[in-house]
Design brief:
By secondary structure, the chain is of the alpha/beta class. It is built from seven helices and eight strands; from the N terminus they run H-H-E-H-H-E-E-E-H-E-H-E-E-H-E. It folds into two domains: 30 residues, no CATH class; 192 residues, Rossmann fold, CATH 3.40.50.
């Protein structure tokens, strides 16, 4: 789930009237990450609208979602149900795991046996170098593993961006994936601080995604929709 908090915000109140400073202290003391605290924010609605639009156009097929939660022990059934509703999917489309990312990544990704298109929703996005909390990321090698598991699959990844232009970060992420796993086709839907990345071995899949959103957005697509191929 998305890494949506702003580290620079240290005062004020959240949407429940709780002091932001106090809430952060409580979360730290409980030893959990903040992704559950932000369930239901605008990014979840945005992701759901994109997937609903793509599904309605017949562009995503056999679609499933891996929430990649880092605080799964804190989630109640109603939280899981809400997440599925926000992403406009059925609960049966959520990938289930017996291990956490922090405990055993190899087993975690081996448990993704789904054969259709897949959305990965890590806290932060794709790791392009060594990171302090790897459970908040998916690696290029893991994306390659999922691409190779099924010919023509579309792997979709949430990417949070900090302290740089979104397009520059997206380019860095995709170039790192290409160097790690070989030739890929890609498209992206970019906003002010986040992006959704679409990656496939088949260029037709990502071109179709880009074309759909360009048709939807018209002249407003120029600064939001991009696509390319990395050999």
């Amino acid at each position: 789930m998305s890494d949506r908090h702003e580290a620079r915000v240290t005062h004020g109140t959240d949407r429940n009237g709780l002091s932001i400073r106090v809430r952060k202290s409580l979360l730290r003391n409980r030893g959990v990450t903040v992704n559950l605290a932000f369930l239901g924010d605008a990014f979840d609605h945005w992701k759901g609208s994109l997937f609903e639009s793509l599904h309605g156009a017949g562009i995503i097929r056999g679609f499933s979602v891996d929430p990649m939660t880092t605080d799964s022990g804190q989630w109640e059934q109603e939280d899981v149900a809400l997440y599925a509703r926000l992403l406009r999917i059925q609960r049966s489309q959520l990938i289930q795991h017996t291990v956490s990312l922090a405990d055993d990544r190899e087993v975690y990704f081996a448990e993704i046996r789904h054969s259709g298109d897949l959305f990965l929703d890590p806290d932060t996005g794709v790791a392009t170098s060594a990171v302090r909390k790897p459970e908040r990321y998916v690696t290029p090698a893991e994306i390659g593993q999922l691409l190779n598991a099924q010919s023509g699959r579309l792997v979709i990844v949430y990417q949070h961006v900090r302290a740089q232009h979104v397009a520059a970060r997206v380019d860095s992420v995709l170039n790192t994936i290409g160097k790690e796993v070989g030739a890929i086709s890609w498209s992206s839907y970019e906003s002010g601080t986040v992006a959704i990345l679409f990656v496939s071995r088949e260029s037709g899949r990502t071109t179709e995604v880009a074309g759909h959103f360009r048709s939807l957005l018209g002249r407003h697509a120029n600064n939001r929709i991009r696509e390319g191929r990395i050999a």
